[in-house]
Design a protein that fits this description.
There is one protein chain. The chain is α+β, with helices and mostly antiparallel strands. Helix content is 25%, strand content 26%. It is built from 13 helices and 24 strands. Strands 5, 8, 17, 21, 23 and 24 form a six-stranded antiparallel β-sheet that branches. Strands 13-12-11-14-15-16 form a six-stranded mixed β-sheet, with helices on both faces. It has a five-stranded antiparallel β-sheet with strand order 7-18-22-10-9. Helix 5 packs parallel to helix 6 and helix 6 packs parallel to helix 7. The radius of gyration is 24 Å and the shape is globular. The termini are far apart.
């Protein structure tokens, strides 16, 4: 519910009846609920107000269904949907075990997104359980530094694999695929044309929203160069250019402009996005880094507001060669699902800022990964040899229910990979009875396009043996990745890792964590908090020798 006089947002909860304090005897309000028509009503303080929203009529033309991963030749079955109230997340379906004899190849998109981990941290720090759909395991792995390996001269990526016992299901195996992207020389990075698109609507009037964003952008501005150009577009009670294109050398002017931002009004997200793209286009730098940086809680309530409509708009804009980075903030009305769609469709990336420390990590320490891409439309194609693999399951990279349901086939789109980024994909494998450790295990193909280039490049690697390493002798990077994966799986209440629990996560990560590694220590602290929130944390009866 949006009060028009103030721009403030209210939520009805599930009981349906409640009161709102107002200085006015009468006020207009706009009500919105997924699946119903958005309507505006007049409210009067002298009586109880009862409103009825009409159901939306299903449109004849359905939007394209975008997938994160797809198993070749497999036809999706009709699937149920469920939703999380308050905050919105895309309803996800975990990837199931696939028969390697019938469906040997799986294709999936890779990217630099890291939003899920910091959002999970926010829930646990508040003493709250985590909505299962807020857990995206591939983004949790993206958040951590996983030992970058420099590609060979002339190569854009380095590919390394490993195979080990599975700690939560000893009869199975874990197959790791680690991809390291080439690092750009910062001194030779092309000039940037950055348009900060900042939500200044009434819903941003909280300490962890607009004030946090102001601090974050000022930190980022301190690291910009004179050749970089900064502009600011705001949207809230009005939409307009707050700061005309300004050189990165004029830091005092930019800081002052950011500091003077104040919240108020409704959230005209569509108009703001269009205005930002127009400004970015007018100051476009050929062969430069042209990017819109959208910062919002994602609660668009004026103009096009559905994920499908926003997706169509962004697809049209991205043809201009302008990237999109989405920074999410807030709680209660945070729209993760909308920002995820915008980032993926805008050839960009997505992060969630839960505190100033995270803002510094994303916009200062990892500035090049966040703002400069080395590859677009990046996809991994993995084909398993059924001579050794009976079944395989890709962990993470889960598809939305809406993309899988129905008779139509979905479309797989690759993601953006930032410079110097290292990502990990993990499969759980069921081996065949007559296992041959000397036989080939899989073929890996990485396909991608260079920024502003239409030519698709390919790297292919064959894993020529299937030797299984004991989990306890794996390099620490892989064991830590397995621990993070199990943490996410338990939070998702995944049926694939039962009876493992959060104590088992600690059993994996504590022996290999470094006291000087603040990210690893924070991870341990979050698992401990999750134990107190979810249960007392008795360890399951897994084989202890896998952990030590």
């Amino acid at each position: 519910m949006t009060m028009h006089s103030t721009g403030y947002l209210y939520y009805s909860g599930t009981s349906g009846g409640f009161g709102i304090t107002s200085a006015k005897a009468e006020d207009s309000v706009t009500l919105s609920l997924d699946g119903y028509k958005v309507c505006t009503f007049l409210m009067k303080s002298v009586r109880e107000n009862t409103f009825v929203l009409p159901l939306l009529v299903k449109k004849a033309s359905q939007p394209e269904k975008r997938l994160m991963s797809i198993t070749r030749d497999l036809k999706p079955a009709e699937l149920a949907r469920f939703s999380v109230g308050g905050e919105t997340y895309s309803s996800l379906r975990e990837n199931d075990y696939m028969d390697a004899g019938k469906f040997p190849t799986i294709d999936f998109a890779i990217n630099t997104d890291k939003a899920s981990y910091s959002n999970i941290r926010r829930f646990l720090n508040m003493g709250s359980t985590v909505p299962p759909d807020a857990v995206r395991i591939e983004e949790m792995l993206n958040y951590f530094t996983l030992e970058h390996e420099t590609p060979e001269p002339g190569e854009d990526f380095h590919i390394r694999t490993n195979l080990s016992e599975c700690p939560w299901k000893p009869a199975n195996q874990l197959f790791y695929v680690k991809i390291s992207a080439r690092k750009l020389d910062f001194s030779q990075i092309p000039p940037s044309n950055l348009v900060f698109l900042i939500d200044v609507s009434g819903s941003m009037d909280m300490p962890n929203r607009l004030p946090l964003l102001k601090s974050a952008f000022k930190l980022m501005v301190d690291n910009l160069r004179p050749v970089d150009t900064i502009s600011i577009v705001v949207y809230g009670g009005t939409v307009g250019v707050w700061l005309q294109p300004t050189s990165g050398s004029e830091k005092e002017k930019i800081h002052k402009s950011i500091e003077e931002l104040s919240p108020g009004g409704s959230t005209a997200g569509e108009s703001g996005i269009l205005a930002a793209y127009r400004l970015a286009e007018s100051t476009f730098i050929p062969n430069g880094n042209n990017r819109v940086v959208l910062a919002t809680d994602g609660d668009f309530n004026v103009g096009e507001t559905s994920e499908e409509a926003l997706e169509r708009m962004i697809v049209q804009q991205r043809q201009k060669g302008i990237y999109l980075t989405c920074l999410g903030v807030g709680m209660g009305n945070y729209k993760d699902s909308k920002l995820e769609v915008l980032a993926k469709k805008g050839n960009g990336n997505f992060a969630y800022l839960d505190n100033e420390k995270e803002a510094e990590k994303v916009l200062v320490k990892e500035l090049t990964q966040t703002m400069y891409s080395i590859a677009d439309d990046a996809l991994l194609h993995v084909s398993f040899f059924p001579t050794n693999v009976k079944h395989y399951r890709l962990i993470g990279f889960d598809n939305k229910f809406s993309a899988l349901s129905g008779d139509g086939e979905g479309l797989l789109e690759g993601g953006e990979v930032g410079t110097g980024h290292t990502l990990m994909a993990i499969f759980e494998l069921t081996p065949v009875e007559k296992y041959d450790s000397s036989a080939a295990l899989a073929t890996i193909e990485l396909s991608y396009k260079l920024p502003k280039d239409s030519i698709r490049h390919k790297m292919t690697r064959t894993v020529n043996n299937s030797k299984i390493n004991a989990f306890q002798i794996l390099p620490e990077t892989y064991r830590m990745a397995a621990g993070i994966t199990l943490f996410g799986s338990v939070l998702k209440e995944s049926r694939f890792v039962k009876p493992a629990n959060l104590q088992d996560v600690l059993t994996i990560i504590q022996p290999i964590s470094k006291s000087e590694n603040l990210m690893q220590q924070e991870l341990i602290g979050l698992v401990e908090k999750a134990k107190k929130i979810y249960y007392k944390g008795k360890a399951s009866k897994l084989k202890a020798n896998l952990f030590w």
